[in-house]
Amino acid sequence: MACVYSMRSSLFWMMLVSLTGLAITGCATSVSTTTDKPRLAQQSVLSTLWMDRAGEYRALCHQAFNMAKLQVDRRLSYHRTLEKPLAVIVDIDETVLSNVPYFSQLIDKGEVFPRGWKVWMQMSTAQAIPGALEFLKYARFRGVEVFYISNRSINEGLTATINNLVKMDFPFADQRHLLLKSKSGNKQPRRDRVEQTHEVILLIGDNLNDFSLIFSDKPVVQRNNAVDMMSSEFGKRFIILPNPIYGDWEGALYDYQWGTSSAQKLKVRQQLYNQ
Ligand SMILES: [Mg+2]
């Protein structure tokens, strides 16, 4: 999704495939049929149901924000230098706002992202992730600012996203505190901007790229190794929320070639599962 994915142009991908004649796994390219997209969409049924219905999902969200609250309390109990005001950085999609109704709709229609994303985003009706609103209000109460760094498009999504956050009563839902995507999906320059003026206590997200460049564009094994290497940061500076529907974890399966056809995605998933 635009909020997370760095989509390569489909034209680029088509050219690449036609030039090499190879698919990303080195196998012959799969040509999509009319049933591939609905089949791909159907594979999201269980993960979508889990995010929609599982008490365990809600519990994990509360756990994440409870950890975040502990970290804020911990930082505020230290001797405070007054050089910079304190801040927390949060992602938006599947971190503070839930897009489960959008993903349910994709399954119903046999479609895949980004179909209908812009329309959904501009409806500004996404609900809050369990625990998110309470935590961010608590942060404000303790004098900690909130910055929202998201890969929603700044042109298509800024007003709608502010409206959505305001509607849900999220604090700091204004232009100064929303750093959406203009060109690059790399969030590091936006994190750096916040760090210039604030001391960032913690970062909260559902995607490893919400935390550090160290996880970016890495194949699956290296990505997992980077997580293990940074293990002491999770639950402290990095607070992660569960998202089994989408994310860079999925992109890593396709070597981040987001323009890959539905047929090829189905094939790669099956191949990796069989390994
Ligand atoms: Mg997200």
Task: Give an overview in words.
- This protein has 275 residues and is an alpha/beta fold.
- It has one domain (10-274): HAD superfamily/HAD-like (Rossmann fold).
- It is 47% helix and 12% strand.
- The protein has twelve helices and seven strands.
- The chain has helices at 10-20, 36-42, 45-53, 55-77, 100-109, 117-123, 132-141, 154-167, 188-197, 220-229, 248-253, 262-274, and strands at residues 86-90, 97-98, 127-128, 145-153, 178-181, 199-205, 238-240.
- Helix 2 crosses helix 12 (262-274), helix 3 packs antiparallel against helix 5 and helix 6 runs parallel beside helix 8 (154-167).
- Residues 3-4, 91, 93-95, 205-207 line the site of magnesium ion.
| Topology, number of strands | 7
Order of helices and strands: HHHHEEHHEHEHEHEHEHH
Strand order of the largest sheet: 5-4-1-6-7
The CATH topology comes to Rossmann fold
CATH architecture: 3-Layer(aba) Sandwich
Q: Can you identify the CATH class?
A: Alpha Beta
> Terminal Cα separation, in Å?
27 Å
Spans of at least 5 consecutive residues with low confidence? 1-28
In this entry the ligands are: magnesium ion
What's the pLDDT, averaged over the residues?
90
Radius of gyration: 19 Å
Question: By helix and strand content, what is the structural category?
Answer: alpha/beta
Strand content: 5-15%
Tally of discrete structural domains: 1
| Helix share bin | 40-55%
The fourth-level CATH homologous superfamily is: HAD superfamily/HAD-like
Tell me, what's the shape?
globular
State the major sheet.
5 strands, parallel
Number of helices: 12
